[in-house]
From TrEMBL:
SUPFAM superfamilies named among the record's database cross-references: NAD(P)-binding Rossmann-fold domains (SSF51735)
Family: Belongs to the short-chain dehydrogenases/reductases (SDR) family.
Species the sequence originates in: Pseudaquabacterium terrae
Top-rank lineage group of the source organism: Bacteria
Protein name, UniProt field: SDR family oxidoreductase
PANTHER family assigned to the protein according to its UniProt record, in alphabetical order: 3-OXOACYL-(ACYL-CARRIER-PROTEIN) REDUCTASE, NADPH-DEPENDENT REDUCTASE BACG
Record-linked InterPro entries: NAD(P)-bd_dom_sf, SDR, SDR_fam
Pfam families for this protein: adh_short_C2
Length: 262
């Protein structure tokens, strides 16, 4: 299927690895020009080279910096000739007990996983509406649907973003001008973050890494962890010309792990 977005420009945040990289790869295959961000310059440049090899005709620009800061966002926005597609993504805050979190800890979580995406949306959607096309995809978490007790910072910040998007996405001045805003909620994907979590859990519990990994995998109806490339394909479809009637939605990509009907 031709997604109809060749020649568009996309800003993909936290794209040097993991789910952000999967999204950038899928968009590159569709002929989308890219501005990709990440904090680590070396990994970012390596990913840019891979993306150029996928589709030599596209332009790929890199901006090393922290997208959760005003300076990082300003640099990323300045690198884009225009933004037709915005993929909001940032690493989640650490797990823990809410009794140990002070105000500054909460503010850092909100800055990264709620306020930074909102600032990027604010900077881009009105111009999208003027051009008559725009796609925003926020990578949040399956924990928005089924909160995880140790991830209270993520539960709170990402749920705040979800509530904000529910109202914004339905504004006629955006939705009526072919600008869609949706959220992608990943479950367990085979990324560095997931593997790091398993290693930390094994170290703390003294249980074998393979055992903990198998327990988590077998709890997923699909009986496997997700692959970043397939997540990217879901993202690319949401960015396509064919997805103009799909907006304000929270789409779980979790191998069936969430057990609810709604």
């Amino acid at each position: 299927m031709d997604l109809g977005i060749a020649g568009c420009w996309a800003l993909v945040c936290a794209a040097s690895k993991g789910l952000g990289k999967g999204c950038a790869q899928a968009l590159a295959r569709e002929g989308v020009n890219l501005v990709i961000t990440a904090r680590g310059a070396e990994a970012l440049e390596a990913t840019a080279a891979e993306l150029r090899a996928i589709h030599p005709a596209i332009e790929v620009r890199t901006v090393a910096g922290d997208i959760t800061t005003p300076e990082g966002r300003a640099a990323a926005l300045a690198a884009c000739p225009r933004i037709d597609i915005l993929i909001n993504n940032a690493g989640g805050p650490p797990p823990g007990d809410f009794r140990d979190w002070d105000r500054e800890t909460w503010i850092r979580a909100l800055d990264a996983n709620m306020l930074a995406p909102i600032e990027l949306i604010k900077a881009t959607v009105d111009a999208m509406a003027e051009r008559g096309f725009g796609r925003v995809v926020n990578i949040t978490s399956g924990a928005v649907k089924a909160p995880i007790d140790t991830l209270g910072l993520s539960n709170g910040a990402r749920s705040g973003l979800t509530g904000f998007i529910a109202g914004l996405a339905r504004q006629p001045r955006l939705a009526g001008r072919n600008v869609t805003i949706n959220n992608l909620l990943p479950g367990a994907f085979d990324t560095d973050r997931l593997q790091s979590g398993f290693r930390n859990a094994a170290a703390k519990s003294g249980r074998p890494l393979d055992e903990l990994t198998a327990i988590r995998r077998e709890a997923i109806p699909a009986q496997r962890f997700g692959d970043a490339a397939e997540f990217g394909q879901c993202c690319a479809f949401l960015c396509s010309r064919h997805a103009g009637y799909l907006l304000g939605q929270n789409l779980l990509v979790d191998g069936g792990a969430y057990p609810g009907t709604f």
